[in-house]
Amino acid sequence: MTELAFFDRVGGQPFFDTLVDRFYEGVETDDVLRAMYPADLTESRRHLALFLAQYWGGPRTYSEERGHPRLRMRHAPFVIDRRARDAWLVHMRAALAQMDLSDEDRAEFDAYIDMAAFQMRNA
C-alpha cells in the first residue's frame, strides 16, 4: 500500500492556504518581521502557500511560476538574525497549532519549519 503524501493527508491546497493566512495574521503585527514584507501581503501569502504545498507533495505551481525555490537567495536581502528566525517560528507554530492535524503530521511539519528557519538565518 502506498502512503499518501502529506499534501493529500492534510486536505490539499486549502490546508496550506489556511495555514499561511493564519501565519500572516501574526506577521502583520510583528515589529521584527513586518518590515521584511511588502505593504500588500497578497503575493507573499500566495507564494508561501504554493511553495509549502509543492514541498509537501502538491502541484508544482510554485516552480512553474517562479522557478527553483532558491530560498536562501530569495531571503538574502533581509537580515535574518536569531530574533527574526524566532519570530518567524512563533507565528508559524501559532498557525500550525490552529490546524487540525494528526500528531505525526504535526511533528513532521514542526521539524521541517524548525530546520527551514535555522537554514534561513544569515546574521
Describe what you observe in this structure.
This protein has 123 residues and is mostly helical. The chain has a single domain (11-120), classed as Globin-like (Orthogonal Bundle), CATH 1.10.490. The chain has helices spanning 6-9, 13-27, 42-55, 61-66, 71-75, 82-97, 103-120. Helix 2 packs across helix 3 (42-55), helix 2 packs across helix 6 and helix 6 packs antiparallel against helix 7 (103-120). The model has no long low-confidence stretch (mean pLDDT 95).
The assigned structural class equals mainly alpha
Intertermini distance? 45 Å
Tell me the CATH architecture.
Answer: Orthogonal Bundle
Q: Ranges with pLDDT <50 over ≥5 residues? A: none
What is the C-alpha radius of gyration, as a whole number of Å? 14 Å
User: Helical percent range?
Assistant: 55-70%
Number of domains: 1
Give the overall shape, derived from the CA principal axes: globular
% residues in beta strands: under 5%
Q: Helical region count?
A: 7
Mean pLDDT reading: 95
Largest pleated sheet: none
Kindly provide the name of the CATH class.
Answer: Mainly Alpha
The count of DSSP E runs of length 2 or more, i.e. the number of strands, is: 0
- The CATH superfamily appears as Globins
Find the CATH topology.
Globin-like
**Strand and helix order:** HHHHHHH
